[in-house]
Amino acid sequence: MQVSAELPLRANLSVLENIALVPQYRDNRPTRQAEQQAWQLLERLNRTACAGLRDPDLDSEQRFVAKLLRVVIGRPPIIVIERPGLLLPDSHYPSRLADCLAKLEDEINTLWIVDYRWNAPLYPPI
Amino acid sequence: MERPALPTHLIKHLGLKVSLLVGTTVFLALGFLGYTLFARGLFEPTRTLTLIAEDVSNVSIGMPLNFSGFPIGQVKRITLTEQGQGRIEIEVPTRHERWLRSTSVFTLQKPLVGGAKIRVFSTDLAAPPLAEHALPPLYTGDMTEELPLLITRAKNLLDNLERMTHEGSHLDQSLAHVNTVTGRMAGRYGVLEGVLGSADQAKKVVDAVDQANRLLDTLNGVSLKMDRRVFGQNGVMDQTDQALSQVNALLQQTRDSLKKADAILANAQEASGDLALLRGEIDDSVRKLNHLINEINRKWPFAREVEVKLP
Amino acid sequence: MHYDRAMRWLIELLTRSGDALIAHLLPTGRVLRFGAIALAGIFSPGLYNSATRTVVQKQIYFTAWQIIGSFSLFAALLSLLLIQITITATRNYGLGDYALEVVLRVLVIELLPLITALFVALRSGAAINAEVALMKITNEIEALAEVGVDAMRLEFLPRVIGGVISVLALTATVSLTALVLAYLSLYGLQIHGLAAFSQVLGQVFSPGQVFGLWLKCLLFGLAVTVIPIAAGLDAPHKLFFAPIAVLAGMVRLFFALMLIEVGSLAITYL
Q1: Chains contacting C with at least 3 CB pairs below 8 Å?
Q2: Residue B111 confidence (pLDDT)
């Protein structure tokens, strides 16, 4: 599953609802339960402040977190983050990314980051 | 574990509101269906009333049966009987059954505007109830069919009435006459005045009758004298007898003259000269006869215009 | 030489008009296909989960609940006016007995459902059309599919369901209001007219007529949601196509509503 600049959030739903939508829809979780699950994920990233906001009101970092959590909550076998530079334009994104992913380590099976080769020096050596 | 403070949703009590709305809708939809079925009398015990009509052309399914303007039943079926009559089956709820009596009259009325109506008239509500298998007739009084005839008749009637009543018509004059006659009748001389036209005329008649009465009295006296004068010795009759004898003789003469005339006429061609002479002779005889008759007339009191005319 | 040119011209003309015809028919075909999918989807048990339920609820809330008060008031005023006009006119012509039947047949069966459908079409139909067009243009549909959510099941079918229920709810409300107003106008605040009222009502609303009315409202509800959604999905991935998609959808919706109304009239009275 991809996290991409070309795959926007559902515009008329808040961040929390966008994240909770996946367990609601796929596992038919009751709304409150699904939202609690989403809330917990947001808490892990200290992003509960933006839970009630919708897409146009988010900054790029909040939007990225929402998109990432929407994917993470579905527990897919592989997560692809496509061009993180586009998703987190105004920051030193590799460290932000690593920060987020470290907090969600136990929620993620496999994660691939797809980026341009010329951005390779930005990432810490594996 | 501490319960996280989830942000409240934008719409409060969304589920409740929607459930309320959907519930109301379902209730209304089903309730409406139920009500229409109830209104159609589906849940009510009914009895079938069968009417026999000569013509069912204005009857339709679902048409109401009206009693005093209230619908108490509905037409359910219209069929044709073996006898070729219309058979109308009407469902009447049993609670309205009491309006149907054995003396009830059923009519189908078609007003000028609007649909036809079946009406029941039950004047005697104490009459025995209408039997289950009774087949009362439905009287069809179709106003529109008889309308042209009715209008023609009414028109004639109105024309006549107008002719009779307008100014100077016979009736008007008659009435005026009657008025004057009755006015006079009420006058002094009563009916007589009415008949004769004025009080003066009536008075004259009355006077005349009085005079006639007086006259009759004197006439009695006169007729006694007359008997003596006319039929007595040397009375009028005696003289008349003599005169008649003379007349006979004269007539004899005349006859002789006529005989001569016949003879003369036989050879009229040559004897035309004698004809004037003969004619003078006859004229003379006739003159004498006239004179005689005049004399008789003079003597005879009841004179009549008598003239012997020559042929 | 001339023959060849003529032939080429003819072929070109036929190709062009054929393309135009196909282009003209394609949206209709897509609407019908989407309608078929929607109908099939509505009856699949897999559709319903807490997310789709929320969408249905929201759709009903925005389409019906938000406007039910003001719209009922408007419909009541309109109904009252038409009822009074009908009663006065029929009484003037000595047809007062038929006032109720005329009111039921014209107002309750034909006019109010159509007005409701038009109102919902103008308000929610346009909104749905714009929203779906934007979803399509901004790639939200693919984004949802990426996280395993079928936009058809999550967004579109619930909207169809919500729209149908909303139209039914609004129609039921305004019709009931009209019935009550008709009774009050004819008989006043008394119950003695109930028998005659029921009699006429029962006569006009045969079970077939009631089902026909339900069916018509159902079709209205389907039209005001299915056509805008299909029109929105027709929009290409370019933002400037959004108004065009809305425009096309609204025109199609108007004709569809009229077609349903005319069809129902034809079926009822022919």
Answers
A1: A, B
A2: 72
CB contact under 8 A, B4 and A14: no
Alpha helices in C43-67 (DSSP H): 50-60
CB-nearest partner of C147 from A11, A28, A71: A71
Say if strands B86-93 and A110-114 run parallel, antiparallel, or are unpaired: unpaired
Please report the pLDDT score of residue B272 as a whole number. 53
Domain boundaries, chain A: 2-122
B8 burial (CB, 10 Å; 0-12 / 13-18 / 19+) is exposed
Looking at 3.40.50.300, 1.10.260.40, 2.60.40.10, 3.10.180.10, the CATH number of the domain A2-122 comes to 3.40.50.300
- In the block, tokens 């010795």 appear at B233
Residue C208 contacts B where some CB pair is shorter than 8 Å: no
Q: Which of A7, A24, A28 sits opposite C146 (nearest CB)?
A: A7
Read off φ and ψ for residue C252, nearest 5 degrees: -60, -40
Q: Does A97 touch chain C (CB under 8 A)?
A: no
Domain boundaries, chain C: 27-269
Preferred mutation among C59, C170, C199 to probe B, highest tally of B CBs within 10 A:
C199
Let me know if B196 is exposed, middle or buried by CB neighbors in 10 A (0-12, 13-18, 19+): middle
Query: For residue B288, what are the β-bridge partners?
Result: none
ipTM: 0.89
How distant is the Cα of B47 from the closest Cα of chain A, in angstroms?
Answer: 56
d(CA B53, nearest CA chain C) in Å: 23
CA–CA gap between residue C267 and residue C270 (Å, rounded) = 6
What is the tens place of the pLDDT at every residue in C113-164?
Answer: 999 999 999 999 999 999 999 999 999 999 999 888 888 888 899 999 999 9
Contact C178, C79 (CB under 8 A): yes
Contact A16 B4 (CB under 8 A): no
SS3 C66: coil
Burial class (CB in 10 A: 0-12, 13-18, 19+), B5: exposed
Residue B156's SS3 state is helix
Residue of B nearest to C213 (CA): B29
**B18 and C95 in contact by Cβ < 8 A?**
no
Q: Which amino acid is at C210?
A: V
- Residues of C in Cβ contact (< 8 Å) with B25: 165, 168-169, 172-173
Residue pointed to by tokens 């459930």: B19
